[in-house]
Write a structure and sequence with these properties.
The chain is an alpha+beta fold. About 45% of the residues lie in helices and about 25% in strands. Strands 1-2-3-4-5 form a five-stranded antiparallel beta sheet, sandwiched between helices. Strands 6-7 form a two-stranded parallel ribbon.
C-alpha cells in the first residue's frame, strides 16, 4: 500500500511539473509573439509594397477604399467558375506622383501549385496592360518550379494586353503565349491561372 501511495505521489508530482513547464512555455511563447507581431507585420507590409512597386514601376503610391474592398470581396463568386483554386487577396489603386489613378496592383493566390499555394503580385494599368508580375511566395521543386521566380519567366507577362494568357511547350508564337517551365507544367499552369484571374477581375469588375 505504501508503495502504491508513493507511486501515486510520484505520478502527481511529475504531472504537476509537466503542467508547470507547459504553462511557463506557453507564457514565454505568448510574450515572444506579442513582441515580434508588430515587427513581422511591418516587414510583411514593406515586402508587399516593394513587390507592388516592382510590378507597377510608374506608380508612386498605392491605396484602397471601401468600394475597391467590396469588389475584392465579390471577386470570389466572379472568378470561381473559371479559376478554381484562385483567390484575389487584395487590390489597390496604383497612383502617379500627382495622385491620379493609373491602374491597379493585386495580390493573388493559387492553391494549384505542385508544392501548394503560390502567391503573386500583379500590376495592370488603366488600359488593361499587364505592367508586371512578381512571385510573393512559392514552394515548388528546386531547379524546376522554382524557376518561376526568374526574370526569364516573369517577364513574359510584362507589357502585354491580352484577354487571357496561354502556356505552350513548343515555343511561343503568339503575343498571349507563355513558354512553359521545363519539367514544371503544373507550376506554369498555376501561375498563368493566377495572372489570368487578375486580368479577368480587372476586365469584369475593376474596369466597369
Amino acid at each position: 500500500m505504501a508503495a502504491d501511495k508513493k507511486n501515486k505521489n510520484t505520478i502527481l508530482k511529475d504531472a504537476l511539473i509537466l503542467f508547470l513547464i507547459t504553462l511557463i512555455s506557453g507564457g514565454i511563447l505568448s510574450v515572444v509573439y506579442e513582441v515580434t507581431k508588430e515587427p513581422i507585420a511591418k516587414a510583411e507590409e514593406k515586402n508587399k509594397m516593394e513587390a507592388y512597386k516592382a510590378v507597377f514601376q510608374d506608380a508612386e503610391t498605392f491605396d484602397s477604399d471601401e468600394a475597391l474592398s467590396d469588389k475584392v470581396s465579390d471577386s470570389e463568386s466572379l472568378i470561381s467558375n473559371d479559376y478554381q483554386g484562385v483567390k484575389i487577396n487584395e487590390a489597390m489603386y496604383a497612383k502617379d506622383k500627382d495622385g491620379n489613378n493609373c491602374g491597379y496592383v493585386m495580390s493573388i493566390t493559387s492553391s494549384n501549385g505542385y508544392g501548394g499555394d503560390i502567391t503573386i503580385s500583379l500590376g495592370i494599368d488603366s488600359e488593361g496592360t499587364v505592367k508586371g508580375m512578381e512571385i510573393l511566395s512559392i514552394n515548388e521543386t528546386a531547379g524546376l518550379g522554382m524557376k518561376a521566380k526568374e526574370d526569364s519567366f516573369k517577364s513574359q507577362f510584362k507589357e502585354k494586353k491580352v484577354e487571357q494568357f496561354e502556356y505552350t511547350k513548343s515555343g511561343k508564337t503568339k503575343d498571349n503565349e507563355i513558354d512553359a517551365l521545363s519539367g514544371a507544367t503544373i507550376t506554369t499552369k498555376a501561375v498563368t491561372g493566377a495572372v489570368n484571374a487578375g486580368v479577368y477581375f480587372f476586365n469584369n469588375s475593376l474596369n466597369k
